[in-house]
């Protein structure tokens, strides 16, 4: 072998080793960017958990994070909040894989799709315990689920609509997406609740992609194509907000009923205005808090129930506290 060949081979080998080292380092940094970096600091913590949400900057998931962080701080646990900036199955799965590869003590995540999440959870759980939150992967080997009974939540929404509209409505549904388990269950529960009502008809079901802009676009499209629609049901936290924007823009507050999900500030504002008539209340803070406590119990050998359903109820305008400084218009 010539000197040039030896030099070229040695150089290529060196750069290959450097490239692999950097790839591993930065792959770890993607997951470990919130871990304390001071020498000896990490040893002060009992465990290292990762919470993987559907969407990082979603207000609902920030409430989940807030609850999880409170529990982590109380227990001396490092908690990372990592995942896609906008809902993405591929990025969500990749974050779970990176968390497992970095050998964290526990992963808390949604189980959005049986087809994609169940095999990965089953692969990971042998080395790293997994608790599902908000959305279950019931057919996987996850250790436990904590969150809403999403079918029941959809059923509650449907029965509330039946009662409020005296069993008569032309309904359009806007759902966060068509593939996520919790969204599917919320739609199915709603359909079951209204299925026996002769004067309630579901006109259309559209997908918002967990975006208030998309929800507004779909609501506008539906009302243009089906002007006879008298009610909307939105199954993700942002859907009713997008629907309400369109209802107000088209000045149809008086003849369109809106049932949503969650109690984001904008949702409550629209309820006070009378544009949204009801919303399903979940307990995201409690989900986050209890998921961390459950993971600690699991790691320390205490019994963990496989299924914990947090409270769910319907909130209407009449249930909101009325400030003396604020005049709230009555719902027509």
Description:
This protein has two domains: 47-142 and 284-310, Rossmann fold, CATH 3.40.50.2300; 150-281, Response regulator (Rossmann fold). The chain has ten helices and twelve strands. It has helices at residues 3-32, 59-75, 89-101, 114-124, 150-164, 181-194, 212-225, 239-249, 265-273, 284-299; strands at residues 47-52, 77-81, 106-109, 130-133, 144-147, 169-175, 200-207, 231-234, 257-261, 278-281, 307-309, 313-316. It has a six-stranded parallel sheet with strand order 2-1-3-4-5-11, with helices on both faces. A six-stranded mixed sheet has the order 7-6-8-9-10-12, sandwiched between helices. Helix 1 crosses helix 3 and helix 7 (212-225) packs across helix 8 (239-249). GO terms for molecular function: carbohydrate binding. Residues 49-303 form the Periplasmic binding protein domain. Pfam families: Peripla_BP_4. The chain crosses the membrane at residues 6-28.
Record the SSE blueprint.
Elements: H1 3-32, E1 47-52, H2 59-75, E2 77-81, H3 89-101, E3 106-109, H4 114-124, E4 130-133, E5 144-147, H5 150-164, E6 169-175, H6 181-194, E7 200-207, H7 212-225, E8 231-234, H8 239-249, E9 257-261, H9 265-273, E10 278-281, H10 284-299, E11 307-309, E12 313-316
Parallel strand pairs: 1-2, 1-3, 3-4, 4-5, 5-11, 6-7, 6-8, 8-9, 9-10
Antiparallel strand pairs: 10-12
Helix pairs in contact: 1-3, 2-10, 3-4, 5-6, 7-8
GO molecular function: carbohydrate binding
Organism: Bacillus infantis NRRL B-14911
Protein name: LacI family transcriptional regulator
């Amino acid at each position: 072998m010539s000197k040039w060949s030896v030099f070229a081979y040695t150089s290529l080998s060196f750069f290959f080793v450097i490239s692999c080292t950097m790839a591993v380092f930065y792959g770890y940094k993607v997951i470990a960017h919130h871990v304390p970096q001071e020498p000896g600091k990490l040893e002060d913590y009992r465990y290292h958990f990762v919470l993987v949400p559907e969407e990082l900057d979603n207000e609902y998931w920030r409430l989940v994070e807030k609850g999880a962080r409170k529990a982590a701080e109380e227990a001396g646990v490092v908690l990372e909040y990592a995942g896609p900036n906008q809902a993405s199955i591929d990025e969500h799965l990749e974050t779970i894989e990176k968390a497992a590869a970095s050998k964290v003590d526990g992963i808390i995540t949604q189980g959005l799709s049986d087809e994609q999440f169940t095999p990965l959870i089953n692969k990971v759980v042998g080395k790293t315990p997994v608790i599902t939150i908000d959305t279950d992967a019931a057919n996987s080997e996850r250790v436990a689920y904590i969150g809403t009974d999403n079918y029941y939540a959809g059923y509650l929404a449907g029965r509330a609509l039946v009662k409020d509209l005296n069993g008569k409505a032309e309904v359009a549904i806007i759902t966060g997406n068509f593939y996520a388990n919790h969204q599917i269950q919320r739609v199915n529960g709603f359909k079951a609740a209204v299925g026996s009502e002769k004067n309630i008809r579901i006109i259309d079901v559209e997908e918002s992609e967990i975006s208030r802009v998309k929800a507004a676009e779909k609501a506008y499209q539906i009302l243009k194509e089906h002007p006879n629609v008298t009610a909307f049901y939105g199954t993700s936290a942002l859907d009713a907000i997008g629907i309400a924007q369109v209802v107000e823009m088209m000045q149809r507050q008086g003849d369109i009923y809106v049932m949503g999900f969650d109690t984001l500030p904008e949702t409550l504002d629209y309820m006070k205005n009378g544009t949204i008539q009801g919303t399903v209340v979940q307990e995201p803070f409690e989900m986050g808090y209890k998921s961390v406590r459950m993971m600690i119990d699991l790691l320390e050998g205490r019994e963990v129930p496989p299924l914990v359903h947090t409270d769910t109820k319907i909130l209407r305008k009449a249930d909101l506290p009325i400030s003396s400084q604020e005049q709230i218009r009555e719902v027509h």
